[in-house]
Amino acid sequence: MKNFKKMMTLMALCLSVAITTSGYATTLPDIPEPLKNGTGAIDNNGVIYVGLGTAGTSWYKIDLKKQHKDWERIKSFPGGAREQSVSVFLNDELYVFWWRREKKTVNHRCRFIAMCTNTHR
Q1: Cα dihedral angle (9, 12, 17, 18), rounded to 10 degrees?
Q2: What is the pLDDT of residues 5-47, one digit of tens each?
Q3: How far is CA 80 from CA 32, 56, 67, 76, 113, in A?
Q4: Which end of the chain is more exposed for a tag (fewer CB within 10 A), N or C?
Q5: Domain map of the chain by residue range?
Q6: How far apart are CA 91 and CA 95, in angstroms?
Q7: For the chain, give me the number of helices (H) and strands (E)?
Q8: For residue range 64-85, what is the model confidence (pLDDT) as tens digits?
């Protein structure tokens, strides 16, 4: 009987976690253009930034705190298109790191660039 109570308590706890966490899921609108092999990051204010890859130098943002969420095109990425990039926010700046492929060789170079988000708002 003691094990049954523990099992029922554990099941109730798992069920309550499953029910409450599903409320946090949000469906976002489609990005205005196809995006594959790009990158994205979210800042401390709940704004998601995505771009590069098959989108070329395009960057978009969406504010998760707004009631009506729409993707907004922002300043293009300087220096040309990049694929398979990685991005992160640090001190309110978006840092983009990428691996650049040179003429079908495996000569990869790591680069970075900072895009100040204050100029995009």
Answers
A1: 140
A2: 766 676 666 666 655 555 566 788 888 988 888 888 998 888 9
A3: 19, 7, 33, 9, 12
A4: N
A5: 34-120
A6: 10
A7: 1, 7
A8: 998 889 999 988 887 677 778 8
